Amino acid sequence: MTTTGRDGTAGRDGTAGQDGTAGQAVGDRFRVVPASYVVFLRRDGDRDQVLLQLRQGTGFMDGHWAAAAAGHVERGESATQAACREAAEELDVVVALADLEPITAMHRTQGTGDPLDERVDFFFACRRWSGEPRIVERHKSAALEWFDLAALPDPVVPHERLILAALRDRTLCPVTTFGFHRPS
Predict the structure, then answer these.
(1) Looking at the whole model, is its pTM more than 0.90?
(2) Rounded CA gap, 157 and 165, in Å?
């Protein structure tokens, strides 16, 4: 027996979604990949500076500057736990959960249609940590440098540049999107 949604259409798996629209088979759904980013900030006189790493050997945006610590959230791990873990793994610094300031969540895509294309990124500002940041994963990072937020290097990973520019301009929204087509 096939069931239908309130609009009278049936889903591919023959069931209606909770909102009354046609449902999709679980295998057809996109899998959103979560990641956490730590935006390390400091003041240098009257200027805000951000710590960036130069990507290499990762297969994604190599040769671009990026957040000094970022990575996928692992199974059973919260976004904040992932941020602290990535800071330790990539920079050899300790960040307390209380020192992470959520600044935005970004839903992004490259528009490939691939089921693993859509991402949700959690961005955290961090102004206090223990230890001196250093490159730990030399096979993934060619350099680690502080830059003025008002004078970012080129190139920066595009979706991260959007966040850094909004942070600089104080226009950051709680939720940001990147790569989705706007309706005509």
Answers:
(1) no
(2) 12
**124 near 80, Cβ under 8 Å?**
yes
Evaluated on CA atoms 56, 179, 72, 165, the torsion sign reads positive
DSSP3 helix / strand / coil % (the chain, rounded to 5): 15, 35, 50
Positive or negative, the CA dihedral 152, 61, 53, 80 is positive
Strands 65-67 and 47-55: antiparallel
Q: What dihedral do alpha carbons 129, 131, 134, 140 form, nearest 10°?
A: -60
Around Cβ 38, how many Cβ atoms within 10 Å?
28
Divide the 184 residues of the chain into consecutive groups of 10 and give the mean pLDDT of each group.
34 35 49 90 94 93 95 95 98 98 91 71 97 95 96 95 96 90 60
Cα distance between residue 49 and residue 30, in whole Å: 36
Nearest to 52 by CA among 130, 141, 136, 139: 141
Interatomic CA distance for residues 151 and 145, integer angstroms: 13
- First-to-final CA distance of the chain: 39
